[in-house]
Amino acid sequence: MAASGKQRIGVYPGTFDPITLGHADIIRRGAKLVDRLIIGVTTNPSKNPMFTPDERMAMVRREVTELGLNNVEVVGFNALLMKWADSQNASVVIRGLRAVADFEYEYQMAGMNQQINADVETVFLMADVGLQPIASKLVKEIALFGGEIASFVSPAVRDDVVQRVEKIGRLGDF
Length: 174
Hints:
By secondary structure, this protein is α/β, with parallel strands linked by helices.
């Protein structure tokens, strides 16, 4: 509990399509920084999702259960991040950073978000060195071309992705 007696609530937004070991690392570490962490599974018009929002929420819930975190919940949202964070009574937005390119984008977003709601702070967590190259987009691409993704996602998520690729079809042939 926060020193003031008020519960510190953090949000960790993302598309999680699919949830990776990098996401799980940020969730695990972010959950230590707040009393309650709300993972917001959202849509992003600029991304081409492999899974529906409901499938992604179920996947994230399953992974959170595997992590054994009792202060984390998973919800869906489709709104402006700062308005959604405010509706959750959050004081912190948690974002993971993998590389300089992430920082540039996230820095700009944090500045815009601060303009929208200065009461919500953005906290950046650096990805674990071994997990830095992992990106959901690349995991999907590797899987679609028949590559192995077991070192980037949990076994259950790997199975979900493999099943989806079998359903929609692989890309490329030799």
